[in-house]
Amino acid sequence: MTLRSTNIDRISGSTFDVLVVGAGINGAVAGAVLASRGASVCLIDRGDFAGFTSEESSNLVWGGFKYLENYEFGLVRHLCRSRNRLIRAYPSNIKEIRFLAALDASAPYSPWFATAGAAAYWLIGNGATRPPRHLTPERIAAEEPTIDVSQVRGGIEYSDAYLVDNDARFVFGFVRSALNVGAAVANYVELVAAEHGGDVWRCRLRDVDSGTEHDVEARVLVNATGPFVDGLNRDLGVRTRHRIVCSKGIHLIVPRIGRRERVLAFFDDTQRLFYVIPMGMRSVIGTTDTRVEEPTTEVTAADRDFLLAQINKRLALPEPLTASDVISTRCGVRPLVVDAATGVSGDTDWTSLSRKHAIEVDAERKLISVFGGKLTDCLNVGRELYDLVGGLGVPLDAYRRDWYGEPPAATQAEYLRQTRLMKLDRLRRSPGFEPLTTRLWRRYGLRAFAMLEALRDDPSMADDVIEGAQYIRAELHLAATTEMVTRLEDFLRRRSKISQVMRHDEVCEADGLTEAADILFGADARRRIDEYFGSYRAPDTIG
Hints:
The protein is α+β, with helices and mostly antiparallel strands. Helices cover 35% and strands 23% of the residues.
């Protein structure tokens, strides 16, 4: 039996303290913190883990420098402290990175005013990062020659943080933590009916992949469905003080721009910040901010052309970027929290809406609804949910901060000792990439020890299965048994970022794709490959 089928068997017919619906960042931290504190938890998602909003972020962990524009000093302080805590808790996964903001005629602020803002931002964040500095156009040209400084008045450099891998993989870390402490977890399982009575929720779940249905009961129901939170509450007959409005943001992944590992920031022609963010040998350009009525969105030709025009206007590239340079795209919605009674008017400045989250409790029916939220704020959401679930009568152990973070330093030291003895990095068949020792620890933590054992037994386990993907054979075997990879896209897009940094035709034509699918799915490999090919839409077909 697979890990997923085992968990579905555990779920079917069982009674839990808490049923968490939705396994994006909010649902994942809910499952991790509650299960770690002794609650019996069921965590489900009708798609894959982090398979919607949480896979479409900018991969940044930041205090929200741009929120100072709207004078949200309290929010910025809150997010900066959260950022600092995440950097300390995940030193291998979350790294400080410098932002270089070049201010041209479209920027609403002068370089000196922006420098003052950066200094305030640094102080609000307790000075936990490297201090900011003012930059002249000449200094910008010397340090980042890829920027066209002909219209630049000056700039600033300051620090925030970013995810070395990708957002969906970071979210899965919380899902895996929930599994490790006893939660019953399954992707591609949807809630089709729920009724509250007799102090319990009686729920009907459906396995989206097989079509089978299962009954489950829970004392508390947590609605963590992100941009779908209002729809589920309507189905449950719940009225709330808050609701969600959606803002679409897109990113374009292109060949690497610039050599230094830092983020380039610009104001576009509408005076909105956008960025060029490093992603290995690629760069991510974005994001946009467009009001939409529905959570499901896609990149349009107008979206793509707008971003390309904005970046070409501000970079001194040998050749302008065109649609053919777009390797892949990211497109998602921000679920923004507004008052349910007043909402937003047609003339509301969309970018001024707060990025704060809100959590509401229906104490009588024991339903908790999570509105909005950001990856940077995830630990705070987890703590709030712990307090609220405990307040609804679920017995929980005392709160401790050991439910998140990387393994202790002594464990990492033992891992590094073993990798030195076995000369792990010499096993690489594809030189020039990040050391294997570093990558395996960051991605897997304690589970990396199992891969060391496999590599000792068979050095070919260190080979890349898909050339250029930076995923070795041992990782695929571990993913097949411990990461609930149900569809090929789960692995290519979320457990890894292969489909983001490689063109679709490169992935499809890779010699190792069939072997990768065989490892992940066994006899079901051919169906999963065909399923992936049939669902894909290439960047050059948007419009």
